[in-house]
Amino acid sequence: MVTAVNQTNQTRIERDPLGEMPVPAEALWGIQTERARQNFPISNLRPLSAFVDAVILIKKAAALTHKETGRLDAKLADAIVKAADEVLAGGHREQFVVDPYQAGAGTSHNMNCNEVLANRANELLGGKRGEYKPVHPNDHVNMAQSTNDVIPTAIRLGALMQLAALIESLTRLARAFAGKGKAFDGIVKSGRTHLQDATPIRLGQEFAAYGHTVERNRDRIARTADDLRDLGIGGTAVGTGLNAEPQYPALMIKHLRAMTRLELREGKDRVQLMQSMGDATAFSGAVRTYAADLGKIASDLRLLASGPRTGLAEIVLPAVQPGSSIMPGKVN
After folding, report:
1. Which of 9, 66, 210, 239 would disulfide-bridge 72, Cβ 3.0–4.6 Å?
2. 325 part of a folded domain
3. What is the pTM of this model?
4. Closest among 277, 256, 232, 279 to 53, alpha carbons compared
5. Cβ-contact 270, 149 below 8 angstroms
6. Does the CA dihedral 86-92-95-98 come out positive or negative?
7. Do both 91 and 232 map to the same domain?
8. Are residues 123 and 193 in the same domain?
9. Which of 143, 162, 194 lies at the terminal end of a domain, its last residue?
């Protein structure tokens, strides 16, 4: 709640259960975000855009759900939805200011989103920033939600929204390696173990194998991503659904499906989905496994292209830029 605006240093004074604090007068965020901004000056990074999108989508879906059930006045719900749409269209991005390295399981980021949407919704309804009337960040934007179900759901949504582009990039890379495998299939060279000459192998076989490695990683990533489609939204504080209507989880999934066009499922055990990060960890592990394989392929290519006079020089990579400040003729 705003108590005063200081015209000298362009701040407004807001109050929460811990007391009063100045907040930049033009900020869409509020006192809880400002406390987090001061408590966690760790990396000076901002939250990833996909993560912001995911939380805002959850807030929009909640407003639509509560409008549908009649729990939230339609005028307030519409204002929250419009504010969310502005963010999803790329607006107000400078307002998401909490460092990703924060305590509290994401409460500060959740409240950052709640405050931004509440303040913007109130502006759309003719109100002022920091007054939180008629839209309140907790009572209305965060209605029937807890950080404990919002953030795990946002992690899943954020990853799934990036999945199609990742899968497509792996498919293109695998296809490129397969093409080189066919082009190089007639070239016989020495295979090597421990960098020592071994038995003959075709250069095409090596490149085809790189392509198959990328394909296997692509399929592994897709398999682990499938578990992320089970959402625990509606579990609220501890997974039991306190303060959420019985129909809330299913309606949330309906709206999130419509907005993201993703295959999403209502989680069968919201307590389990809240207490375990196993699905996200498995997906992360699959991505890290791909990174390890990709690093090995890159090292192989670098070794095969070493030279050109005293290295292997079995393949030629396109020149990118001069490779030395002291050796002008060296090219990387």
Report:
1. 66
2. no
3. 0.94
4. 256
5. yes
6. positive
7. no
8. no
9. 143
Catalytic annotation on 43?
A: no
pLDDT in tens, 268-317: 999 999 999 999 999 999 999 999 999 999 999 999 999 988 999 999 99
Place of tokens 């749409």: 85
Exactly one of 169, 190, 306, 324 is catalytic; name it: 324
The answer as to whether 324 is a domain residue is no
Assigned token pair, 122: 């109130």
Cα 286 from chain centre: 16
Domain containing residue 122:
2-143
d(CA 16, CA 248): 29
Specify whether 82 is located in the same domain as 214.
Answer: no
Give the length of the chain: 332
Q: What is the pLDDT of residue 319?
A: 87
Parallel, antiparallel, or unpaired for β 196-202 and 188-193? antiparallel
Please state at what angle helix 278-304 crosses helix 203-226, rounded to 10 degrees. 170
Segment 95-130, tens digit of pLDDT: 999 999 999 899 999 999 999 999 999 999 999 999
